[in-house]
Structure formats: C-alpha cells, structure tokens
Amino acid sequence: NDDERYVYDGQGQRCRKISTAQASGRTMTNEVRYLPGLEVRTTADGETL
After folding, report:
1. Is there a contact between 40 and 32 (Cβ–Cβ < 8 Å)?
2. Considering only 7-11, 21-25, 29-33, which range has the smallest mean pLDDT?
3. What is this structure's pTM?
4. By C-alpha distance, which of 8, 3, 48 is closest to 29?
C-alpha cells in the first residue's frame, strides 16, 4: 500500500512529508523536510546492509 503523511508545526506550516510505496517487494520511503528557503529530501529502500 502506498501512503503519504504530512507533519505540521504549531503555526500550521508543513514541516515534513513522508511517502512510502511498495515496489518489487521492497518498501520505498521518501521524506521531505521543509526548512525556511530549503527542502531536504531523503530516500530509503528498506534494504538492510
């Protein structure tokens, strides 16, 4: 199942978005952190190394 969640700060501004998706038997996770004037994006595929 694909899922998308949002986190808001105390002033109602979006500060984080987390998306998960199933692909080829793995769970792919994408996260965006919203900072003033900047978006930090990270990706993980659930693989254990």
Report:
1. yes
2. 21-25
3. 0.78
4. 3
Cα distance between residue 3 and residue 20, in whole Å: 5
Instruction: Say yes or no to pLDDT of 12 above 90.
Output: yes
**SS3 for 49?**
coil
- What's the one-letter identity of residue 28? M
The SS3 of residue 11 is coil
Taking the C-alpha atoms of residue 9 and residue 44, their distance in angstroms, rounded to an integer, is 24
Other Cβ atoms less than 10 A from the Cβ of 28: the count is 15
Beta carbons of 29 and 18 less than 8 angstroms apart: yes
Instruction: Scan for tokens 């990706």, then name that residue.
Output: 43
